[in-house]
Design brief:
Strand order of the largest sheet: 3-4-5-9-8-7-6
Helix content: 10-25%
CATH superfamily: Mog1/PsbP, alpha/beta/alpha sandwich
Radius of gyration: 27 Å
Structural class: alpha+beta
CATH architecture: 3-Layer(aba) Sandwich
Length: 190
């Protein structure tokens, strides 16, 4: 009986001791790391920078891409692409007069002369490499006789919606979401 009492007391003492060693004092508990701004992005391609001083934005696109002035009209204010046409990036500026939704994307692309516009991934919040909040989405549409697939980012600044759309004709140059997203996320409005 005495032996059981001694073992019981020893067991209680061991449990108390282990509970003390598992819980560190409050002063030694880890604190969550402080929020930090996004790190500078190392691009997977050598870039050229297009800067638009009128609307206050820039974008970095692959250095071997060339200006595509034949695409520029209306709200499309700049475009760049490989010399053989695809892939490419176009930059548009429109009034930010409605929420950024799939319906807005369809209306904007249709107003730019495209047909059969479909948003293939819902608009979702993202952060551009410069830390600016933006919306990203993918879409497909017909531009003339060509079926285009694209990745886009859009952000609003001073009542304007600035959009970078990186696109291709899949049959000629396969859609590369990683590259297209990277290019679109270099849009900077700072």
């Amino acid at each position: 009986m005495v032996m059981l009492l001694v073992l019981g007391l020893a067991l209680v003492a061991c449990k108390s001791k282990s509970a003390e060693t598992v819980t560190p004092p409050a002063a030694q508990q880890a604190t969550p790391p402080a929020a930090t701004p996004p790190a500078a992005q190392q691009l997977t391609y050598t870039a050229k920078t297009y800067t638009n001083s009128e609307y206050g934005f820039s974008i970095q696109y692959p250095k071997d891409w060339v200006a595509r002035p034949e695409i520029v009209n209306g709200t499309l204010i700049a475009a760049f692409g490989v010399p053989g046409f695809v892939p490419g990036v176009s930059l548009s500026v429109r009034d930010a007069d409605a929420p950024m939704t799939a319906d807005w994307v369809v209306a904007a692309n249709t107003a730019e002369g495209n047909t059969d516009v479909k948003v293939t991934s819902p608009p979702a919040e993202t952060t551009l490499f410069d830390g600016t909040p933006a919306i990203q989405y993918t879409s497909s549409f017909m531009s003339g006789q060509y079926a285009i697939v694209s990745f886009a980012t859009s952000t609003d600044k001073n009542g304007k919606r600035i959009r970078a759309t990186v696109w291709t004709i899949d049959a000629f140059s396969p859609y590369d979401e990683a590259l297209f997203s990277e290019i679109a996320h270099t849009l900077s409005v700072k």
